[in-house]
Specification:
about 270 residues; 7-stranded parallel sheet; Rossmann fold; alpha/beta; globular; about 40% helix; 7 helices
């Protein structure tokens, strides 16, 4: 018996990376999952892996109609919605603020905030009535950059810090019917990409794995699957029904960062 038997969830940006790991884990724990993704290839991969347990929806998290359609698809396929996981995001690849041309700043600001913040708000608003009906939950993907500087540039870090306030305010406003929590992963081997016209991928950056390993006490770059079980815990009504406004940091111990201890030889 799975920890999410009988649950129905919606994950945005669930075709790759952490989102895909969450979808895979939710299905393994007994849930049916709708997935809002921009990629037909990712949608086909999800269907091939999970069959009728998933309902991929092709759309853009920045679009209200696409978010509504995603919720309606989950309700028509699975009869209810217990958990929303707003997860889609883009990265700024630590571009220094002083190096962003003034004439480009507005467009870059709007794109990253529209995906990383507005996309979460649109998904939450579209899911609101369904989550109230099920007394369900929202589990947001945040980041170690929600708490610390240096994990991105001014634009990315601003979006992730902003989501902490978003999460806390929604937890306050939507209680007692809806719990709102989050998971804040640190450095992860994921296909996180940039905005329009930016072909870079985070995990492909030269030296990325070594840099993360060097800067966290646990000493390694995490995989998407390392975080997925935490979403299950926060989604579960039996395991976390008295938990709201809480963020689990899954970041290798950045908060106590010092010199990494070497493993003892046995």
């Amino acid at each position: 018996m799975g920890r999410l038997d009988g649950y129905a969830a919606l994950v945005t940006g669930g075709g790759k990376g952490i989102g895909r790991a969450v979808v895979d884990r939710f299905v393994a724990e007994g849930a049916n999952v709708g997935v809002l993704t921009r990629s037909q290839g990712d949608a086909d991969s999800l269907t091939e892996a999970h069959g009728d347990a998933v309902a991929p929806i092709i759309g853009d998290v920045r679009n209200w109609d696409d978010n509504q359609r995603a919720v309606e698809t989950v309700l028509s396929r699975f009869g209810k919605l217990d958990t929303l996981v707003p997860n889609a995001g883009i990265y700024d690849f630590s571009d220094k603020f002083q190096n962003i041309r003034g004439e480009d700043l507005e467009a870059r600001y709007r794109e990253i905030f529209d995906v990383n913040v507005l996309g979460y708000l649109l998904a939450a608003r579209a899911s609101l009535e369904a989550l109230r009906a099920s007394e369900g939950s929202i589990v947001m993907t945040l980041s170690s950059s929600s708490f610390y500087t240096g994990g991105g540039g001014a634009l990315y870090v601003s979006t992730k810090h902003g989501l902490v306030g978003t999460l806390r305010q929604l937890a306050y406003e939507l209680s007692p019917e809806i719990r709102v929590n989050g998971v804040a992963p640190g450095g992860t081997r994921t296909g996180l990409g940039g905005g329009s016209g930016d072909a870079r991928v985070l995990e492909d950056l030269d030296g990325y794995e070594a840099m993360v390993a060097r800067n966290v006490p646990l000493g390694f770059l995490s995989e998407p699957e390392d975080h997925a079980g935490l979403y299950v815990t926060l989604a579960s009504k039996t395991e976390s029904r008295f938990v709201t406004a809480h963020i689990i940091r899954s970041d290798g111990g950045i908060e106590v960062r010092g010199r990494r201890r070497k493993r003892e030889t046995k």
